[in-house]
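The data are passed on as follows:
___
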Amino acid sequence: MALVVLAILIDAIVGDPPTLWQRVGHPVTWFGKAIDALDLRLNRGAARRQKGVLAIAALALGFGFLAAVVAGALALLPGPVGLLVEAALASSLIAHRSLHQHVAAVADAPTLAEARRRVAMIVGRDTASLEEAGIARASIETLSESLSDGVVAPLFWLAVAGLPGLVVYKVVNTADSMIGHRTPRHEAFGAAAARLDDLMNLVPARLTAALVILARPALRHRFAAIKADADRHVSPNAGWPEAAFAHALGVSLGGPRTYAGRLVDGVRLNAGGRAPDRSDVRAGLALSRQVGLIEAGLYALLALAAALA
């Protein structure tokens, strides 16, 4: 657990140093290049679903094995050096600091046009015609879902299975974002990546909602409403953090949105809530920080208990 706590601290203090990743490339870009290569090579002809299973298995096992070798080598270094280096590597796959920076940039945009431009950098929906409420809704939805799959889930898998577990999770999550779409090209080939990502996020998504409730104790009386909203969501996981944030902030999230000119009618979360504005985005950022502090505190307690055992 000390590894998890150190990774949280490094991410909070340093984040992702752009100069370093410009020189050596961010680990997620390595994953992306490997996914692209297998997509180009295997996603053709017959048996695409089976080839997709082979691709995600090769990616997860290959990068997981590499991470295990690195972790084993670092364990041989004297004193705390290996632990610190491993924590630094792990922190590069945790996105709390960068998530806050990107969402805060939307909240602080000086004009509506600039807010649209900035929110377009963090969401996949069309943003050119979004008004203030639509921008705030998109920002809070992205903040809550990314808190789950970009912070809580990576730390969960780091705690459960060390650096290899974290790397496997990030590979699967990256593959889901790249090929796990129901498009003519990827519906069959990316199905295994999408299902495995759903499976690996089952616990973290619900853990995120629980952490939000810990940060806002009054929400415990609204757990049934949060669960009902989450169960109606098209995703088996994304509804949990989004519904928890909607109820915590008193706003309505979800609903219709447009992707590449095509209208998608999403489920309403906390349908009786008010329309969000940018002050709610800032409140969401504060809630995300509270969740992060609670999570860090829990892992610190587990680390202390392990040290005293």
Observations:
- The chain has one domain: 2-308.
- The chain is about 70% helix and 5% strand.
- The beta strands are 253-259, 262-269.
- The mean pLDDT is 95.
